[in-house]
Amino acid sequence: MYEVIMYDGGIYRSDELFELIEDVGGVVLLKNRSSQMLTVTMSIPEEDRPMVEAFCKEIGGQVRDVPLAGTEIAVIGPTLGRHHMPHPICDIAEYLRRCGAVTVVMGLARGRGKHTSQISLEETKIIDEYDACVFMLGNFKPCVETKAELLLSNINIPTVLVCGPVPEGIEGTCDAIVTGVGRKASRMREPGDRAKLEEVGDRVEEVLDDKKKAIEEDPPFVHPSEIKALLENFEPIDMCLRPAPLVMHLDGLRAKISYDEYHEQIENMEVYGRRLGDVCVITPSKINDSSMLIRIKSRSQVAYEDAEKAKKAA
């Protein structure tokens, strides 16, 4: 059984930390360095956690649990303008990031106005690339009740709605609701605000737990961390200057390199004696042509395709 934890400290003796993670059979999921500070999200065997924790404290760092590690979450507002609460959106994204998730903040192209706001099919497809999304609406109850149905009904990933009033009649449009976070022009620093951020984090964790259980019923052919370890040695990924060039999802990864230039090389890589292209579905991202999505097929899907190939060969 593996546990995901985060090291937060300096770069002093960080090489020894990475060697220790490798020695215990762990995997580095995410590494961020800012000047002399370093955060490392890692997956390690449960029985080795005390040893890793003791070493992290020895080199002056802190260790904490990160329940959302290995996920990418979109935090969405009708727009990113002041009218639509930029501060709560940014504070929620930062809080989820501290829980281990990779977060992206986005606004809709035509989200402004009670009578004109809308979401396009392309925006829906972009949102569906993430593991889950937090959708923020505003303070006016009629507006929330009307727009929740219009904006959320076609999203196919777990969705947490955050708004000010308690809406009625929108059951089935989202997986969880957090109320009491209205329009604000200041940061969420007060004790009540902090409690609301924790509530948002708890709801996101719950909806992702449901998705994890559904995936475990027919697990991926390989774990996303194994694909990540394979791709980290791929030169275009190693040379990529974008932050977090590989982002893990619950059922795959996002690779921030050009699909047109590199997808064939990635498809021809081998994992457990198979072409990666045979056990994964690799597609360009809807965001732009400089990213690709790698969805890992389930074990039953791979077995079915093997059986079909055997029939054709017979």
Explain what this protein looks like in three dimensions.
With 314 residues, this protein is of the alpha/beta class. It is built from 11 helices and 15 strands. It has a 5-stranded parallel sheet with strand order 6-5-7-8-9, with helices on one face. Strands 2-3-1-4 form a 4-stranded antiparallel sheet. A 4-stranded antiparallel sheet has the order 10-11-15-14. β14 and β15 form a beta hairpin. α3 packs across α6 (191-217). The longest helix has 27 residues, at 191-217. It starts with a strand and ends with a helix.
Short account of what is shown:
This protein has 314 residues and is of the alpha/beta class.
Separation of termini?
41 Å
Please state the structural category.
Answer: alpha/beta
| Strand line-up of the largest beta sheet | 6-5-7-8-9
Strand content: 15-25%
How many helices does DSSP assign? Answer: 11
Shape: globular
Largest pleated sheet: 5 strands, parallel
